[in-house]
Amino acid sequence: MDEHKSTPSRPSPASASGFTLMEMMIVMVLIVILAGIGLSVYGSSVQRAKEATLKEDLFQLRDAIDQYYADKNKYPANLEALVSEKYIRAVPVDPFTQSTDTWQTTTSEPDPGNPSLESGISNVKSGSDQTGLDGSRYADW
Protein backbone atom coordinates (compact mmCIF):
# COMPACT_ATOMS: atom_id res chain seq x y z
CA MET A 1 0.00 0.00 0.00
CA ASP A 2 1.11 3.49 -0.78
CA GLU A 3 1.21 5.70 2.30
CA HIS A 4 1.24 9.00 0.40
CA LYS A 5 -2.19 8.52 -1.07
CA SER A 6 -4.90 10.21 0.89
CA THR A 7 -8.56 10.06 0.46
CA PRO A 8 -10.19 13.25 -0.74
CA SER A 9 -11.79 15.05 2.12
CA ARG A 10 -15.11 16.82 1.88
CA PRO A 11 -15.20 20.49 2.72
CA SER A 12 -16.96 21.17 5.95
CA PRO A 13 -20.11 23.30 5.73
CA ALA A 14 -18.37 26.15 7.60
CA SER A 15 -15.55 26.38 5.04
CA ALA A 16 -17.81 26.27 1.92
CA SER A 17 -17.41 29.35 -0.24
CA GLY A 18 -20.42 31.55 -1.03
CA PHE A 19 -22.39 34.44 0.33
CA THR A 20 -24.63 34.42 3.34
CA LEU A 21 -28.14 35.78 3.16
CA MET A 22 -27.07 38.81 5.23
CA GLU A 23 -24.27 39.67 2.80
CA MET A 24 -26.64 39.41 -0.14
CA MET A 25 -29.18 41.66 1.59
CA ILE A 26 -26.54 44.32 2.30
CA VAL A 27 -25.41 44.32 -1.35
CA MET A 28 -29.02 44.58 -2.56
CA VAL A 29 -29.73 47.52 -0.23
CA LEU A 30 -26.61 49.32 -1.47
CA ILE A 31 -27.64 48.78 -5.09
CA VAL A 32 -31.14 50.15 -4.40
CA ILE A 33 -29.72 53.24 -2.64
CA LEU A 34 -27.30 53.96 -5.50
CA ALA A 35 -30.04 53.48 -8.10
CA GLY A 36 -32.31 55.88 -6.20
CA ILE A 37 -29.61 58.52 -6.09
CA GLY A 38 -28.93 58.06 -9.80
CA LEU A 39 -32.61 58.44 -10.71
CA SER A 40 -33.02 61.62 -8.68
CA VAL A 41 -29.91 63.16 -10.25
CA TYR A 42 -31.16 62.16 -13.71
CA GLY A 43 -34.60 63.65 -13.06
CA SER A 44 -33.26 66.99 -11.93
CA SER A 45 -30.78 67.14 -14.83
CA VAL A 46 -33.64 66.64 -17.30
CA GLN A 47 -35.55 69.45 -15.55
CA ARG A 48 -32.51 71.75 -15.69
CA ALA A 49 -32.05 70.99 -19.41
CA LYS A 50 -35.70 71.85 -20.15
CA GLU A 51 -35.35 75.08 -18.17
CA ALA A 52 -32.22 76.03 -20.11
CA THR A 53 -34.04 75.31 -23.38
CA LEU A 54 -37.00 77.45 -22.29
CA LYS A 55 -34.73 80.36 -21.35
CA GLU A 56 -32.95 80.18 -24.70
CA ASP A 57 -36.23 79.91 -26.66
CA LEU A 58 -37.67 82.93 -24.81
CA PHE A 59 -34.49 84.91 -25.47
CA GLN A 60 -34.56 84.06 -29.19
CA LEU A 61 -38.27 84.86 -29.56
CA ARG A 62 -37.97 88.17 -27.71
CA ASP A 63 -34.89 89.08 -29.73
CA ALA A 64 -36.75 88.33 -32.98
CA ILE A 65 -39.70 90.48 -31.81
CA ASP A 66 -37.30 93.34 -31.04
CA GLN A 67 -35.59 93.01 -34.43
CA TYR A 68 -38.97 92.95 -36.18
CA TYR A 69 -39.99 96.13 -34.34
CA ALA A 70 -36.68 97.84 -35.15
CA ASP A 71 -37.02 96.98 -38.85
CA LYS A 72 -40.73 97.67 -39.38
CA ASN A 73 -41.54 100.10 -36.53
CA LYS A 74 -44.40 97.87 -35.45
CA TYR A 75 -44.79 94.63 -33.55
CA PRO A 76 -45.63 91.36 -35.33
CA ALA A 77 -49.29 90.37 -35.36
CA ASN A 78 -48.45 86.82 -34.25
CA LEU A 79 -45.49 84.47 -33.87
CA GLU A 80 -46.05 83.06 -37.35
CA ALA A 81 -45.26 86.52 -38.76
CA LEU A 82 -41.74 86.10 -37.39
CA VAL A 83 -41.45 82.87 -39.37
CA SER A 84 -42.96 84.21 -42.59
CA GLU A 85 -40.70 87.29 -42.45
CA LYS A 86 -37.70 85.01 -41.77
CA TYR A 87 -36.78 86.38 -38.35
CA ILE A 88 -36.88 82.81 -37.01
CA ARG A 89 -36.92 79.50 -38.87
CA ALA A 90 -39.84 78.06 -36.92
CA VAL A 91 -41.79 78.75 -33.77
CA PRO A 92 -40.00 76.66 -31.13
CA VAL A 93 -41.73 73.98 -29.10
CA ASP A 94 -42.31 74.94 -25.48
CA PRO A 95 -40.26 72.28 -23.63
CA PHE A 96 -42.83 71.94 -20.84
CA THR A 97 -46.06 71.91 -22.83
CA GLN A 98 -44.52 70.13 -25.86
CA SER A 99 -46.45 72.42 -28.19
CA THR A 100 -45.84 75.45 -30.39
CA ASP A 101 -49.40 76.69 -29.79
CA THR A 102 -49.22 77.27 -26.04
CA TRP A 103 -46.94 80.33 -25.99
CA GLN A 104 -48.63 83.17 -24.12
CA THR A 105 -48.21 86.48 -25.91
CA THR A 106 -48.52 90.03 -24.56
CA THR A 107 -50.11 92.60 -26.82
CA SER A 108 -48.31 95.91 -27.18
CA GLU A 109 -49.76 99.08 -25.72
CA PRO A 110 -51.25 101.54 -28.19
CA ASP A 111 -48.81 104.28 -29.18
CA PRO A 112 -50.33 107.67 -28.29
CA GLY A 113 -48.02 109.33 -30.82
CA ASN A 114 -49.28 107.10 -33.61
CA PRO A 115 -52.88 105.96 -32.95
CA SER A 116 -53.19 104.38 -36.41
CA LEU A 117 -50.43 101.90 -35.55
CA GLU A 118 -51.94 98.48 -35.04
CA SER A 119 -50.98 96.58 -31.90
CA GLY A 120 -48.98 93.38 -32.05
CA ILE A 121 -46.99 90.99 -29.89
CA SER A 122 -44.48 92.74 -27.65
CA ASN A 123 -43.57 89.83 -25.38
CA VAL A 124 -43.90 86.06 -25.14
CA LYS A 125 -44.01 83.68 -22.17
CA SER A 126 -44.39 79.96 -21.59
CA GLY A 127 -47.89 78.52 -21.45
CA SER A 128 -46.88 76.03 -18.78
CA ASP A 129 -48.49 76.11 -15.33
CA GLN A 130 -45.54 74.25 -13.77
CA THR A 131 -43.05 75.65 -11.29
CA GLY A 132 -39.30 75.76 -11.86
CA LEU A 133 -36.50 74.48 -9.67
CA ASP A 134 -36.07 78.01 -8.29
CA GLY A 135 -39.73 78.13 -7.19
CA SER A 136 -40.95 80.58 -9.85
CA ARG A 137 -43.62 79.74 -12.41
CA TYR A 138 -42.45 79.19 -15.98
CA ALA A 139 -45.28 81.45 -17.16
CA ASP A 140 -43.60 84.33 -15.29
CA TRP A 141 -40.21 84.01 -17.00
Characterization of this structure:
The protein is mainly alpha-helical. The protein has a domain at 49-130. The protein contains two helices and two strands, in the order H-H-E-E. It has helices at residues 21-72, 79-84, and strands spanning 104-107, 121-125. It has a two-stranded antiparallel ribbon. The radius of gyration is 32 Å and the shape is rod-shaped. The model has no long low-confidence stretch (mean pLDDT 89).
Rg calculated over all Cα atoms: 32 Å
Number of helices: 2
pLDDT averaged residue by residue: 89
β-strand number: 2
Oligomeric state of shown chains: single chain
- The ordered string of helix (H) and strand (E) elements is HHEE
Share in β-strands: 5-15%
Uncertain residue segments: none
Give the spatial strand order of the biggest sheet: 1-2
Main sheet overview: 2 strands, antiparallel
The assigned structural class equals mainly alpha
Percent of residues in helices comes to 40-55%
Which term fits the overall shape? rod-shaped
Distance between the termini: 95 Å
Keywords for this entry:
141 residues
Can you summarize this structure?
With 141 residues, the chain is mainly alpha-helical. It has helices at residues 21-72, 79-84, and strands at 104-107, 121-125. The protein has a two-stranded antiparallel ribbon with strand order 1-2.
Per-chain topology:
Elements: H1 21-72, H2 79-84, E1 104-107, E2 121-125
Antiparallel strand pairs: 1-2
